[in-house]
Amino acid sequence: MNLKTDVCIVGAGPGGALLAYLLAKKNVSVILIERSKDVAKEFRGEHLNEEGEGILKHHGLFEKVERLGLLRMETLEYWENGKLFKLINPNPDIGHLGIHVPQAHLLSVIIQEAKKYSNFSLMTNTRLIDLIKDEADGFKGIKAIREDREIVIESNLVIGADGRFSTVRKKSGIDVTVRKHGYDLLWAKIPAPLNWEPSIKMALIDEMQLSLFTQTKGYIQIGWNIKEGSYSELRKQPFTPFIDKLIKAFPQVKETVQRHITSWQDFVLLDVHSNYTDTWGKAGLALIGDAVHTMTPTGAFGLNSAMKDADTLAAILTRETISNMDLVNCAAQRKKEVEKLQVIQVQKEQNFAKQFVIYS
């Protein structure tokens, strides 16, 4: 099967889907491919900040997402030995300290809006296997496998929006610098106790960060930092003393924790790293989101940065400019902004324990 389009976007996460929608609105033909069968699969970073909220509102998407369900965080709390000692409330002009938005809600709205345009096409269960080069060593499309059949998609521009282990980045030969941050992360999800207020709660356990993030539909997401590479040894130890530290930090979740986190298998391990590249694109190819600047979970910048990349690129792309656009220079401003955010993440990680100095 051979197809032709103006832009082929690899990866139907929030950044890739938003870019596809915005380009389709501008009469740019777009094929969006996704290796999963379901674009609404759950992912970990589901928190909007003020910037992400503003992007969705600017494009008339926020209210549609809100109707499906989202949750504004009302407080940021710091706890020690089961007691609250610091409370931060939102700026009244903003009204929240972050918004939990399930990926299923966000993507379903964006995809449904994109489907209103005949020049948009979504191909799920489609896996990139190679990039197609032109005579000048630029890129002019992709090869992929869909339902055991090879397809070729010719395009004037290929966008890699396929995450931190980006196949597009690897196939294009763009080098990436990986930065380790000294910790890995254990994720878990539990039902919230009755009358649980939307909040972000923080504690310091063994000099590492423990966080509870309220989610929609009555859940809490647990994010527990552990020392980098320590999980294989940690899980050899008895489970109960480990989980008792969580209960001591937040006694109000004791019952739900004991019911729903009963073994190491109830955690998902995330290998935490950030990365960045000096090159955000080549002739006929550009990278956005985690494919070009993986963020750590700190500060919940990843989702919002990917959507900002998409918004910025869509604003300057037209059918007339795709072929001759200097993508490297176009990325210069975003590159500076992302570099600042990654510095902020490191600073937040390094200074987290200082929030608890009152108890030292």
Give a brief rundown of this model.
The protein is α+β, with helices and mostly antiparallel strands and about 350 residues long. It is built from eleven helices and 20 strands.
Topology:
Blueprint: E1 2-10, H1 14-25, E2 30-33, E3 47-48, H2 50-58, H3 62-68, E4 71-72, E5 75-80, E6 83-88, E7 99-100, H4 103-114, E8 120-123, E9 126-133, E10 139-146, E11 149-160, H5 167-172, E12 177-180, E13 183-191, E14 199-205, E15 208-215, E16 219-227, H6 231-234, H7 239-249, H8 254-260, E17 268-270, E18 273-276, E19 281-282, E20 285-287, H9 302-316, H10 327-330, H11 332-351
Parallel strand pairs: 1-2, 1-11, 2-8, 5-14, 11-20
Antiparallel strand pairs: 3-7, 4-7, 5-6, 9-10, 10-11, 12-18, 13-16, 13-17, 14-15, 15-16, 19-20
Helix pairs in contact: 1-4, 1-9, 2-9, 3-4
Description:
- The chain is of the alpha+beta class and 360 residues long.
- The chain folds into 2 domains: 2-46 and 102-179 and 273-351, FAD/NAD(P)-binding domain, CATH 3.50.50; 182-270, D-Amino Acid Oxidase, Chain A, domain 2 (2-Layer Sandwich), CATH 3.30.9.
- The protein is 30% helix and 31% strand.
- It contains 11 helices and 20 strands.
- Strands 1, 2, 8, 9, 10, 11, 19 and 20 form an 8-stranded mixed sheet that branches.
- A hairpin with a 2-residue loop joins strand 14 (199-205) and strand 15 (208-215).
- Helix 1 (14-25) runs parallel beside helix 4 and helix 3 crosses helix 4.
- The longest helix has 20 residues, at 332-351.
- It is globular, with a radius of gyration of 21 Å.
- The model has no long low-confidence stretch (mean pLDDT 92).
